[in-house]
Amino acid sequence: MATFRVVLVEPKNEGNVGAVARGMKNFGVEDLVLVNPVPLRAEARQRAMHGVDILERARTVKDLEAAIGLTVGTSGIDTESEKRFARIALSPRELATKLQKAKGQVALLFGREDFGLLEQELRRCDLLVKIPAAERYPILNLSHAVAIILYELFAAKAPKLAVREMSGLEKEKLHASFMGLLDATDYPIHKRSRTQIMFRRILGRAVPSKWEFHALMGVLQGATKRIQRLEGKR
User: What b/e string do you get for 20-37 counting C-beta neighbours within 10 Å, with b at 16 or more?
Assistant: First the structure.
């Protein structure tokens, strides 16, 4: 399993550095390296909140040699042109999927607040990632960009809730119960086929669980029986 290191290249705002440490704490990343940073004073500590221990342990270095192992660069600019291969970027989710089976240390490089990573710095990276954003203003705040990428990495390895899906037989029982309800309500004959198809497609998109199957069956069968009882009293 990969371990992640956040590398901030020449950050100019100490508050951003503190906010990055806070985001790292949220997503369980402890290793922070600062390349020629601005001096960190009270504002950085205040913004770090419960991540102040990460800030205190952060290493300060003079160059990118600290970013060892697999290196991922971040950029607000990308391209589809093969001629500018250094700028072909993954989305954060694509990156998280790609790194699920990675081993060793992965350094996540974030550039300067004003102009990001230099071309030669990007060329040192094994992968490039870009966060999708509005075309009119695609550049995110440094700490926000770190938080988004760390969230995707965290979510990709978070344990997934095991959900038992509704079986094919249960699905057909549900359709039969729905048809029974249409019969009980005297739903117009000429509309039934179309409505049944619509219900089938809704279930197909939803992929209900077994628990949801039993809940829906209870509603449909209960409504049908109630209508039949009322009809019998007339």
Answer: bbbbbbebebbbbbbbeb
Pairs from 226-231 (Cβ < 8 Å, separation ≥ 24): 227/181, 227/184, 227/185, 228/184, 231/184
Instruction: Look at residue 65 in the predicted model and tell me its pLDDT.
Output: 74
So what's the pLDDT on residue 73? Answer: 83
C-alpha to C-alpha distance for 139 and 77, rounded to whole angstroms:
8
DSSP structure string for 64-81: GGG--SEEEEE-S-----
pLDDT at 161: 66
**What is the model's pTM?**
0.71
Place of tokens 């004959």: 189
Check: CB of residue 51 under 8 Å from CB of residue 24.
Answer: yes
Low pLDDT (below 50) residues in the chain: 81-86
Token code pair at residue 124: 């040192």
Question: In the chain, where are the structural domains located?
Answer: 2-157, 168-233
Q: What is the CATH code for 2-157?
A: 3.40.1280.10
